[in-house]
Amino acid sequence: MRTLIQRVKRGGVRTAGTHRAIGPGLVILLGVGEGDAETDADLLAEKTANLRIFSNADGKFDRSLLDVKGEALVISQFTLYADASKGRRPDFTAAAKPPEAARLYDYFASALQRRGIEVKTGVFGADMEVEIINDGPVTIWLDSKG
């Protein structure tokens, strides 16, 4: 499982008929790979909730999403598993199939909520417009496989 985490001043997602937004916090692009399981989601949820990427009064990264009481916007992003090493068209075969990916996407969002994070989500599999107002910018890549 992979996440691309962006610290934001605000973020939002629009789909047909819906708009969800967060204030300061994290926009989390989440990709689910073949063979991923709940243990991967729990590992990344724990890491994400406690990742110290918010500044303290001295400007040092010393505060987590939990510490700043920030929100999270989780967006499904199978393209994090793109393999563009050959040719010009990315190969997405390393991404989990949609039913399993949707299940683990929901599980990850719930795992963040269980850790005390206010979570909003996009719509799995939908075309979405994602708004990201970076803060920093600070962008972190996490992979449950190392």
Structure, explained:
23% of the residues lie in helices and 38% in strands. It has 146 residues and is α/β, with parallel strands linked by helices. It has one domain (2-143): D-tyrosyl-trna(Tyr) Deacylase, Chain: A. The strands form two sheets. Strands 1, 2, 3, 6, 7 and 8 form a six-stranded mixed sheet that branches. A two-stranded antiparallel sheet has the order 4-5. The radius of gyration is 15 Å and the shape is globular. The model has no long low-confidence stretch (mean pLDDT 97).
Element layout with pairings:
Layout: E1 2-15, E2 18-22, E3 25-31, H1 38-50, E4 54-55, E5 61-63, H2 65-68, E6 71-76, H3 98-114, E7 118-121, E8 129-143
Helix pairs in contact: 1-3
How would you describe this structure in keywords?
alpha/beta, D-tyrosyl-trna(Tyr) Deacylase, Chain: A, 3 helices
